[in-house]
Structure formats: structure tokens, C-alpha cells
Write a structure and sequence with these properties.
It is a single chain. It contains 1 helix and 7 strands, in the order βββαββββ. The chain is mainly β. A 7-stranded mixed sheet has the order 2-3-6-5-4-1-7. Strand 2 and strand 3 form a beta hairpin. The longest helix is centred in the middle third of the chain and has 4 residues, at 44-47. The radius of gyration is 13 Å and the shape is globular.
């Protein structure tokens, strides 16, 4: 059994490809970073190895995803941001697309770390 985290991560606007806060860091290995996630039912130790599924909304299938390889604490960019924000490094996977939302629903950007 594996772990999964479903999150709301909107598409970039203005004709730019990709998702907000997601950047390609290694084209050859298809490695991306995604920030900045606040811990909600996971720790840096428990999230590594989970599959991250990014959705436009909870009612739409995932548009992007991959295995979380690393989780790193990042500094707030403004005074109103929480101090416990994390950046994920993930390896993109074709299987990260087209998956329905699983986990907590409602007014949340994260479904919580679940067993799949």
C-alpha cells in the first residue's frame, strides 16, 4: 500500500503552461518543485514517497502529479505567511493525471495524507 496527497494547485494564468508554484528543475529526470505547502496531517518524514495529485478543483480529475522525493522547510516571503511552509521535490508521473480527488473535501486545499 502507498500514500497519496491530493491538493488544489491551480493552472498558471496569462497563457503560461503548468501549475502555480510548480517549477521544472531537471528536464532530463522530469523533476519539479512545488511550494509552499503547510503541514496538514503529514510530516516531512511521512510525506516523502507519497504520490502528489494536483487538481484545479476537488471535482475535477488531477491534472499533474508525481512521487514526492523530498520535503524542505522554506522561509516565508511575506510577514503574513505561515512559518511552517514546505517545498516538495517530485518526479512527474504520467499516472499522476486523471485521478479523482480522494481524502477530505470542503473548504481545504489539501485532502490529507491517505493510504491507497
Amino acid at each position: 500500500m502507498g500514500k497519496a496527497l491530493h491538493v488544489i494547485c491551480k493552472a498558471r494564468t496569462g497563457g503560461k503552461a503548468g501549475r502555480e508554484g510548480v517549477d521544472l528543475v531537471d528536464n532530463k529526470r522530469m523533476l519539479f518543485t512545488s511550494d509552499a505547502w503547510v503541514k496538514k496531517g503529514w510530516t516531512p518524514e511521512t510525506i516523502v514517497g507519497a504520490i502528489l495529485y494536483m487538481h484545479q478543483t476537488q471535482d475535477e480529475p488531477s491534472a499533474f502529479g508525481g512521487e514526492i522525493l523530498a520535503c524542505e522547510l522554506i522561509s516565508p516571503k511575506t510577514a503574513d505567511q505561515p512559518n511552517d511552509r514546505y517545498q516538495f521535490t517530485l518526479s512527474a508521473m504520467h499516472e499522476g493525471r486523471g485521478v479523482k480527488w480522494r481524502g477530505n473535501r470542503g473548504p481545504t486545499e489539501q485532502g490529507g495524507l491517505i493510504e491507497v
